Amino acid sequence: MERYIEAIFRHKLLFFCLLVLVPAAGVVYAFKNESRLYQSTATVWAEKPPYLSTIGDWNQWISAAQNQQSNVQEFLQTDSFDVAVLSQTDLRGYLSNPLVRQQLILDIRRYATVTTSGQNLVTISFSSPNARVSSQVVKAIIEQFNKDILAQSSAQGSAALAFYEQQLAQANKRLADATATLRSYFEAHPALINTSLDKADTLLSNAAFTAQYPEVIKLIQARDTADKEQQSLQSQVNQIKFSESSNAIGQGQAFRIMDEPNIPLHPVVQRRELIIPIALSAAASITLAGIALVAFAFFDHAIYSASVAAQELQLPVFGTLPYVPARRRLFPRRRIVRRDIRTVLSMEVAASSRQLPPPAAL
User: DSSP states of 99-138 as a string?
Assistant: First the structure.
């Protein structure tokens, strides 16, 4: 520990530069090169699909806003959707370059955010160095999403309509067959000729009638089952047709804009981007200072205490003399001191030479 403390005090200037100046330089670099982006935001109203039975990826247990938020985020991860969005902005001229196009796609995925505010409100934001482009991208995301959802809904509706119409035709045939069988049974029994088919359901509650005509009970139940199936399929077909007519006139949009995306007037400072260079500079300064401290302590073989001296030299230590360093002036006069020393030495040499006998006498 003594060696580390001594290394710090011996190299105060170096450690000051590493621990103070390096992080300060990182802070200056971060603020000088920070990206100032313009953020445009739009608030939209999320609508549920007109018919849920044909939407396979719709979660009925969460809100409409959360469903549409997930859908938009998934659309943004596709290149085709991002390119369609960029083609509606002023950046359409850069799409011919593959490298620039890929960078623009990455920028959309990075700076486009989709959040929810309640059961039906969805907020879509985009940040860009160009204020006009930020507003255009938000508007293009909403329009392209509505277009793709309508196309998907129309395709699903057409397939579902064809399927349900086929099932409905079969259900109509089964209902007609069951009704014809029941009518034939009534005509075959003279006692039932005057009984209307519409009142056949009331006959089920007549114990004497059911005991006398047990077969008619099965025929009535078969006719009722076919009728319920036919009504259910007819309801599905009517719902799909209504949805397709809504899509045709533009009323089946997934998003309805509540707040238009305006062109921002002031940039937004990205504080998160400032943390990375500042943290890296601080980590680098601490790492370099630690390496320097360990190196100075490792290569320092001086003895700083009596206990260490006794342990290293294997000799007893009876006492220590304090080290009193010479007082340093602000502007030391080293040349004058050396000249005075030389003068004193030359006078001593001259005095000693006079006291010596001449060479001939020796």
Answer: HHHHHHHHHHHHHEEEEE-SSSEEEEEEEESSHHHHHHHH
Residue 314 Cα distances to 1, 47, 226, 310, angstroms = 21, 89, 110, 5
Burial state string for 199-213 with b = 16 or more CB within 10 A and e = fewer than 16: ebeebeeeeebeeeb
| φ, ψ of residue 324 in degrees (nearest 5) | -110, 105
Q: For residue 19, what is the DSSP state?
A: I
Cross-strand partners of 46? 255
Best CA proximity match to 254, nearest among 61, 65, 14, 43: 65
Report the C-alpha gap between 8 and 293 in whole angstroms.
7
Q: Tell me what the mean pLDDT of segment 332-345 comes to.
A: 47
First to last CA, the chain: 63
The pLDDT value given to residue 345: 47
Distance separating alpha carbons of residues 139 and 146, to the nearest angstrom: 11
pLDDT attached to residue 162: 82
Whole-number Å distance between alpha carbons of 11 and 174: 99
Question: What type of residue is 100?
Answer: V
More confident residue, 51 or 299: 299
- What residues does 86 pair with on adjacent strands? none
Contact 115, 17 (CB under 8 A): no
Please, which residues bridge with residue 259 across strands? 43
- The beta-carbon contacts of 241-250 under 8 Å, at least 24 apart in sequence, are 241/161, 242/50, 243/49, 243/50, 243/51, 243/153, 243/157, 244/154, 244/157, 244/158, 244/161, 246/50, 247/150, 247/153, 247/154, 247/157
More confident residue, 180 or 305: 180
Answer yes or no: are the C-beta atoms of 69 and 114 closer than 8 Å. Answer: yes
Mean pLDDT of 343-348: 49
- Residue 129 has a pLDDT of 87
**Amino acid letter, 278:** I
Instruction: Please state, rounded to an integer, the average pLDDT across all residues of the chain.
Output: 76
304: helix, coil or strand?
coil
